[in-house]
Each structure stands twice: as structure tokens, then as C-alpha cells.
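Below is a concrete protein record.
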Amino acid sequence: MKRVLICLQLIFLILMGSVPVFSDELDFDIESTHVILINMNDDSVLYEKDPDSIISIASLTKIMTAIVAVEKIEDIHAKTRITSSDLAGLVEANASVAGFAVGEEVTYEDLLYGLLLPSGADAAQTLARTTYGSVKVFVSMMNQKAQKLGMEHTHFANTTGLDAEENYSTINDVVKMFRYALDNEILKEIMDTEIYRTSDGKLTLYSILRRKYLYDCAYIVGGKTGSTYAAGLCMASYAYYNGVYYMLVSSGAPYNRENPWAFIDAAKIYGYFMQNYAYHNIVDYPDVVLTLPVQYGREDTIDFCAREHLDVYLPDSYDKRALTYDYHGRDIVRPNDHVGDYFGSVDIFYEGEKMITVDLYLQEKVHFSLWKYLKGNALWFAVPTLLVIILYQRRKKSEG
């Protein structure tokens, strides 16, 4: 029996949520009250803890400040001057500052680094004044940008993230903001930086995220931290390990300078998935995904097989034999089918969770068998033949 292997055109449909959320299964014993961990490779949520509650986000607010500023600035190397109004009230509010002085001439690049590395409120206020003329107008632009990004549960009242009743967001909204910032090459480069020297050489700026407690989270590439008494310790970070990019956003860890709870929580959450999960092959050439019968073909059946290597993020204990397949489509191949014809799709499951959907297209011609056609239709040929014989015999008999 000859069988023809016909490859599949495979289409990944791994969307957010297609890989299971493990929040109900895992207890990390963490201090943060609001958390989400995302596999950035396929945009799937791996872990979450109350990500939709309205919360204070402290200096994570400055990510939006950076977005609005950088999109307005025409030349980040252009210079501006620090004024007394830029620093007014910051000391009294116990705001973190980069250390810029009144009268100092700095570049916009200096201000952006000062905003995101040491979380400088002085940089935030200066950027607001010099790009949109006033903090009030700038904050209005922050809220407009939030709406455009689909941050439906977010409102900004200031550029710094200092506690205010009208300055709030959710973890899921912060994810949208953080993703957008990472898509900006300038902001991504800044958030990935550990140390920066200002253009005049007067200040050396250090990243709170990249330097503080880095030995616990060495795989973190970049991001932003925040802390106020109302928000607790917050963090928006992304990390890389073994071919996988992760994004972790958290808030609500106890405000305690002696114990870096946000980092401790990050080490637990990142570490668990990095040590216990990875991408594993579930479909590989020439794995047979489906076999269909052929009608009137030289071949009795056709095996639909994978033509490429496909991996899915799964536990290291993953067993390929536990895969199940659910096919939706045509149940037979015919000789008049053409190469490229769509046949259906196969959903591939692991432990009840759908991993991927594979679309099937015919890629080789099926060869027609006259013998099988005649054999399969013998009755239709036999009846007319028998009638002809009977009529002939009657005619011959009548003539005799």
C-alpha cells in the first residue's frame, strides 16, 4: 500500500491566554498584592494576581511621562535650563530626584535618563514645562495618551507618581503602557541602561532597577521601579532567559527600605518559570498529524504531516505522548482536489489546554485509479450491462 505524505501549512494561533494562567495553581508566598507575568514570545499570561483592581502605581507613572515627552521632543540632544519652578515642592513631598540644579543647562537626553534611571521628579517637572509649557497641559496629554493606548482604568494627576486621589491605574493598564514604551527605541535603550553620565559630566545617574539587588535578578534586562506609602513597592520589568522574554509588573509590596520585597517577589516568580518551564517541541517533521482516506486514488490513504518544527511553552515534565488532536474538516481526499485546497484544521491539546491550531492544505496531487473507480462503481456498470444482455437475448429469441 503506497501512502503519500502531504505536508501542512501550519499557522500558529497562540494568543494571550492560549497557554494556561497558573495563578490558581501556584502560591509563591509573595508580598506584592497585584501581579502579572507575561511570556512576551507568544503574548501569553503565565501568572496573575488581582491585575484589574484600581491602585496607585507610584513612579511607574513616569513611564507615561517619558512616553509623552519623547514623542514631543524633536532633538534629544538639544539643551534646556533647569528653573526653580521645576524643583518647587519636591523636597517637601519627599520625591526622588536625579540631582539637577537650578540654572544648570542639560540636554533632553539627560532629562530622560534622569527621569527613568534614578526616577527623578526634577526631570519629570522640567520635561513637562519645556515640552508643553506647563505641568497641567502635560498631564492632560498623559491622559489623552492613556486613552489611545486603551488604558481604560487609568488617570494621571501629576508627572511624578506622587500619591494623589486622581492618580491611579491597574496592573493590566501598566502592561499596555510598558509595552508601548519598550517599542520606542530611545526609551528602551534608557530603561536597559545601568549607568549614565550627563552631557556636562556633572552627574552620574544609576538605575535603581539594574543596580539595586541585581544579584537576585541578574536576568532582568530593564524597566522601572516605583514606591510610595500608598502604592507600596512597584516594579515593571522585563527579563530574558533561555530564549524566552518575560514581562513582570507588580505593585503593593510593603514599603520597606530594608527588604526589597518587589525584587524578592520578582526573583521567586521569574525564577520558578525559568527553572521549570521552557519551549518544547510538539510538532516536528515528519510527525503525522492526520490521516485521511483517498477516494478512487492509487493511494488508499494520505498522511498529513508537519513540515516544520513547532515549539510551545510547557513544563519541563511535558510528555509528548499526552498530546491529543481534534480535527475539523473534510473527511476524504478526492482525485479532483487541487494542490492548495483547504481541508480543515487540527487543534492540538495538552492536558486539556489547546496549544496550537494547525490549518491543513493539500500540497501534492492525488493520482486517479481507473480500476478502483470501476471496482467502486461495479454495480452501476453491472445493471445496465445485464439489461443489455437480457434485451439482446429476448430479441434474438423473438427473431428465431
